[in-house]
Every structure is written in C-alpha cells, then in structure tokens.
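Quick one: structure tokens for this chain, please?
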Amino acid sequence: MFTGIVTHTSKVIDIDLSQNKLIIVNEFHELAIGMSISVDGACLTVSKFDINSITFDLSEETISRTIISNYSKNTLVNLELPVKHNSLFSGHIVLGHVDDIGTINEIKVVKGKLNDFYFTTTDDTYIIDKGSISINGISLTTNIKSDKLFYVSIIPETFKNTNFLTVNENEEVNIEYDIIGKYVYKFSK
C-alpha cells in the first residue's frame, strides 16, 4: 500500500515490451527482490537490482492497463516505496492498482507557479468534487468541471518533485480512483 506522496523521480533506462521488462535508474539505497514500488502509480515488483538500476517484470495486464507502453528511454517516472507500519500517512490510501488511463486535456497556469491540470477520462463514476484521486501515483484532490472532465491544482512543491514537471497536453496518465469510494459505490447498489 502507498500514500500517493511521491518521494523520488527516476528515468527509464530501458523498456522492452517483447520481454515484458522495465529498467529504471536506482534512486533508493535499501531494496530487496520482491519488494513493491509504485512507478507512476502502478505497483511493480522488483525482480533485480544493483547500485545503478532496478528491473521489473511486467504482466500483460499491467502493460495493457497503464501508460508503461508509452515509456521510452529517459522518460521521467514518479516513485514511492510502500508504507511501513511506522510511516507518516500523509496522502490517501493508494494501492497501485491503476483503474484507468486519462489524458491531459489542458494545462493552465493560475497564479505564479500554481498550475491546474485538466483531464478527460472514460469513466467518471468514482470522481467526486473534492475527492481523492491518484494520478501517476500522486495523491491529489479532484475538482469537477463537467462530465468526464476534471482538474487538479498542482502546487509548486508537487510540480517540482514529480513528473508533472515534464508532462504535456494530450499525454496519457495513470489514474487510480479512491478505494473507499469504489467500495462505497459497489455496496450501495
């Protein structure tokens, strides 16, 4: 489990979809084989690592349900290690199970370095005004614009420490809807 508070960014060294492998620069000191890492919000398992790199084996489901197939060498990705029992819980519950791929519809500079990122999504069932959402692994608060169009406000601290620094309009992003909202919806039917 994660909190959506991105602690590191890293660059893709290699993505080989024919071998279902992703290799990124190792930004961590303590790792273990089998450890989970949130990579742009997708929970991936470390299959190999050394001082320079981390390798992940990818399932076909992960490739088809995330933006990983869009990666190329030097793509900047967001990283978060899993929550520990004594971790500060600062974001919201993020499982690393990507629900949808959204598209950045528009980026607006609001004031100074505050940016509003507008997204379109195929399914707005779980998006509520002022709700929790994870975009590329970042815990954010939604603002509703219209059906299937919502936006999030990105403060300077989040902007400079995540891959929002490098994304552009019309790019795809990983979206994980709030797990509590999904359970409430399922059991209220």
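DSSP finds three helices and 13 strands in the chain.
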